[in-house]
TrEMBL record:
Single GO MF annotation: metal ion binding
Protein name: Nitrite reductase
PANTHER family the record matches: PROTEIN NRFC, PROTEIN NRFC HOMOLOG
Keyword Repeat: no
Organism: Turicimonas muris
Length: 222
């Protein structure tokens, strides 16, 4: 199946927040009141070469101040000692379905968008108390130096999904290391990948129900 990596989504105006919600054609056709999407991102460690294009695209798209990041890549040790044989891990908000950051926010600034179920921010309500930062077990939140509000990767909810595009990092990745879509749509590509690939989630035992999945690297010669 060929996927237009820039605009495989169509848009449908939905929800009380007035956000343009991306839905693929199947989901849109089947969309009835009460439909609950579950957007998931998959990072394939086997395909990531650590080029950093995702990181740059994220910062530019979301106007992240220099020196701050919504996402980064951690380079891990070589698997077999071979120089250059590195592996990378994406570090960003895990988009928990049970997000501690939302639970501890006293103002409702950190919240789950009711139309998409994506964890995002209402900057106007943020008082900078940092409770959400302390409450996040993944250490991926920060106070944006410009806005003075807490920030997390929200799958580009307002900057890309709102105009029917894939998240900036997914668009920027030329190595197909990032997959994004609605896991609750049985016809979505992401749903099919989750069905056939072994994926792992970080600290899922905490009950946070992260929606960032990882396809771990396949060790050569094992
Ligand atoms: S753009 Fe893709 S290959 Fe490059 S670092 Fe990001 S995820 Fe890895
Ligand atoms: S990873 Fe942290 S910031 Fe993201 S939803 Fe979970 S608790 Fe909130
Ligand atoms: S989904 Fe958007 S906000 Fe999240 S890492 Fe990718 S580009 Fe950044």
């Amino acid at each position: 199946m060929t996927i237009d990596r820039r605009k495989f989504l169509t848009t449908a105006a939905l929800g009380a927040v007035g956000t343009m919600i991306p839905l693929d054609k199947e989901a849109e056709a089947g969309n009835v009141s009460g439909y609950q999407p579950r957007f998931v991102m998959i990072f394939d460690q086997n395909k990531c070469v650590g080029c950093g294009a995702c990181k740059e695209a994220c910062s530019e798209t979301n106007n992240v101040p220099a020196g701050q990041l919504r996402m980064t890549l951690e380079r891990q040790s070589p698997l077999d000692g071979t120089p250059g044989n590195r592996k990378y891990v994406r570090v960003s908000c895990q988009q928990c379905s049970e997000p501690p950051c939302v639970r501890v926010c006293p103002t409702g600034a950190a919240h789950i968008d009711p139309a998409t179920n994506i964890v995002t921010m209402d900057n106007d309500r943020c008082v900078g108390c940092k409770y959400c930062i302390a409450g996040c077990p993944y250490n991926v939140r920060f106070i944006n130096e410009k806005t003075k509000a807490a920030e997390n990767c929200d799958f580009c909810l307002h900057t890309k999904l709102a105009i029917g595009e894939l998240p900036a990092c997914v668009q920027a990745c030329r190595y197909d290391a990032l997959i994004f879509g609605d896991a609750n749509n049985p016809n979505s590509y992401v749903n099919k990948v989750l069905a056939v690939k072994d994926t792992v989630r970080v600290r899922a035992m905490l009950g946070t129900q992260p929606n960032l999945h990882y396809i771990p690297i396949i060790k050569k010669g094992v």
